[in-house]
Specification:
The protein has one domain: Neuraminidase, CATH 2.120.10. By secondary structure, the protein is mainly beta. About 10% of the residues lie in helices and about 50% in strands. The longest helix has 22 residues.
């Protein structure tokens, strides 16, 4: 009798376990990936540029540089690092993130709550927008401008009116990820570097969940840098040729990289310029 009761109890326990395995919700973190890099090629970069935003559009590289009195909008030759055009920004602004929208370039400012909209062909300022938060990084999807403000929040704006339409909180395993900085929209995901780290978060634009992390540790040796603020802060994507570029504030190089699983053997495929 005792054996029969024990067997019935064990059968009940197995049924409960089976039910949990079959019907329990799948964790949102189960699909998170961890990646690192291989260097494909390096390009020269102005080491005096305090990089705040970097984009690659229609074969052209554009950069926003910061600091009061030294902020600028630039078009650069990727191969040589030569500045092809430069528009200095008013001394009252500390320029920040940069993105394109149609035939314009949109440049944020840090604490002035003003975005500058330029004609992409001439660098002429067409208009300005205001926003309540600080401006850090900027990118866009098919219908919205996406702004980071140094917190865990990403703000979505209508690109014509600059009215906020929604916002998401970026979280990794339920914990808020703060100090999100430079942004780039790649393959339906938001890439965001975390200020003063060597990591880029890959973020779901629908939920704010961190889908994965990219570790760029060792990409730019500290021995080649001259300033404590010379940190990772520049992500650009060439959609036509599926190329990913990264750089940093006051870095002497732009790196074209390919992403690999974190545990992959790092065999350089580097062709230095």
């Amino acid at each position: 009798m005792k054996f029969q009761k024990l067997r019935a109890c064990l059968q009940s326990c197995w049924l409960i376990v089976l039910f949990v395995l079959v019907f329990a919700p799948v964790s949102n973190t189960s699909a998170q990936t961890s990646q690192t890099y291989r260097i494909v090629r390096t390009y020269p970069h102005d080491q005096q540029a305090f990089t705040q935003g970097l984009i690659y559009v229609d074969g052209h590289l554009y950069e926003s540089t910061g600091k009061e009195g030294h902020s600028s909008l630039r078009e650069e030759d990727l191969e040589t690092g030569r500045i092809l055009r430069m528009q200095l920004v008013s001394d009252k602004y500390f320029a920040e993130g940069l993105t394109e929208w149609k035939n314009t370039l949109v440049q944020l400012t840090w604490q002035s709550h003003v975005a500058l909209v330029y004609d992409r062909a001439t660098f002429r300022v067409l208009r300005t927008f205001s926003y309540p938060e600080e401006g850090w990084g900027l990118t866009h999807d098919a219908k919205s401008l996406i702004l980071s403000d140094g917190s865990a929040t990403l703000h979505f704006f209508d690109p014509e009116t600059f009215h906020e339409t929604r916002r998401i909180t970026v979280k990794d395993n339920g914990k808020a990820v703060t100090e999100l900085n430079e942004l780039e929209f790649i393959h339906g995901e938001i890439y965001a570097n975390v200020w003063h780290t060597d990591r880029i978060a890959r973020i779901s634009p629908a939920s704010g969940r961190v889908i994965g992390w990219i570790d760029l540790k060792g990409l730019m040796p500290r021995s080649q840098l001259t300033d404590d603020e010379a940190v990772l802060n520049g992500i650009a994507y060439d959609a036509a040729r599926d190329r990913l570029f990264v750089t940093g504030k006051l870095w002497p190089k732009i790196f074209e990289i390919t992403l690999v699983p974190e545990k992959a053997k790092l065999v350089p495929v580097q062709h230095s310029k």
